Prior knowledge:
The chain is α+β, with helices and mostly antiparallel strands. The chain has one domain (2-104). Helix content is 13%, strand content 27%. The protein has helices at residues 53-56, 68-77, and strands at 2-4, 10-12, 24-25, 47-51, 61-65, 84-88, 100-104. The chain has a three-stranded antiparallel sheet, with no helix packed on it. The chain has a two-stranded antiparallel ribbon with strand order 4-5. The longest helix has 10 residues, at 68-77. It is globular, with a radius of gyration of 14 Å. The relative contact order is 0.17.
Amino acid sequence: MRVEQLRPDFKEKLWSEVKCGDVLMIEEGEHFPADMVILTSSAENGECFVQTSTLDGERALKHKQCLVPIKKTIDKEGLHNFHCSIHCEVPSKNLYECNAFIESE
Length: 105
């Protein structure tokens, strides 16, 4: 797991060191014990698939997709030049819904 440190390269961190607002790079097959907002994906259409079996017992992959305009901005300007504020509801036990909005410059 790597965390963005206000520069284009990432560095390894322990999960216990991750703080709200950190930008994380999750690679294929990696496990992550955190709720996240997907800003971009290596897939051209911005999709990714997440396994939630440790949360809900389901082994089927869940389809997720980032917001395409945000992905296009990050692809064009680079992640280190992308600035935004993410406003979301407080954590809940509902695994299948998250209400949030993103403000970007």
